[in-house]
Amino acid sequence: MNEISRRTLISTAIPVGAAMALPALAMTQATTATATAAAFRGEHKPQPLPFDPAKLRNLSEKLIRSHHENNYTGAVGALNLIEKRLAAMVSDKDVPGYLYADLKREELVRTSSLVLHELYFANLGGDGKAGGDVLTTIKQTFGSYEQWDAEFRKTAQGLAGGSGWVILAINFHTNELHNYWAWDHMHNAPFSRPLLALDMYEHAYHMDFGSAAARYIDAFMTNVNWEEVNRRFTGAQKAVAALRG
């Protein structure tokens, strides 16, 4: 992976941001009101499963459908409700900031749950065989694929019986790939792009494996869609290249 210059990114991003701000300053009051309303629309739609859940290996169709229909779809519905409640509260002068902040925190939890679940389902349905540029970079960063795999699994095992995610991400600030421990749906490192997401909440595996989280991790790894992971990686590299001009 080409090294990313933080100075170059910053020097390039500032003019772009300034250029984007100019049209915003020229927006009419009516347009501004419409844009503000869009922030509270509460119209997110669940995405369908991108694979046939009956064809996964060692992960039952019942488990996958329950996870998708109950946990993921439930998070989408909760986010819609929260956005609408925020719209009703924002102009209410009697609502104190700390109550509004509590709901904003729940908004972040549900937003992150929506994003991570969509990443999770999209990076399933493959043969579990890593390849492409992302594999080359994993080997360069971790010393070997096996070393990366061992750390990813160990991080996941540390969440067994608890709640959270393991995320392989490209960190644009440090210019590296890294495995991150993520609690409560929302602890991804700032200025990073998730490439591979593993849900370690018990709802993701208990129906099939009970408390045997290690068996679930094994099953997950055999079903990873590395083509999707590589697509995210190359897409992130293209975005950085665009920023650098």
What does this structure look like?
This protein is mainly alpha-helical. It has a domain at 132-244: minor pseudopilin epsh fold (3-Layer(bab) Sandwich), CATH 3.55.40.20. The chain is built from nine helices and three strands; from the N terminus they run ααααααβββααα. It has a three-stranded antiparallel beta sheet. A hairpin with a 4-residue loop joins strand 1 and strand 2. Helix 3 packs antiparallel against helix 4 (97-122) and helix 5 crosses helix 9 (226-244). The longest helix is centred in the N-terminal third of the chain and has 30 residues, at 61-90. The radius of gyration is 20 Å and the shape is globular.
What's the average pLDDT?
86
User: What is the radius of gyration computed over CA atoms, rounded to a whole number of angstroms?
Assistant: 20 Å
What structural class do helix, strand and pairing data support? Answer: mainly alpha
Number of strands: 3
Secondary structure: elements and pairs:
Blueprint: H1 6-25, H2 29-38, H3 61-90, H4 97-122, H5 132-142, H6 145-157, E1 165-171, E2 176-182, E3 192-199, H7 206-209, H8 213-222, H9 226-244
Antiparallel strand pairs: 1-2, 1-3
Helix pairs in contact: 3-4, 5-9
Please outline what is shown here:
This protein has nine helices and three strands. The chain has helices at 6-25, 29-38, 61-90, 97-122, 132-142, 145-157, 206-209, 213-222, 226-244; strands at 165-171, 176-182, 192-199.
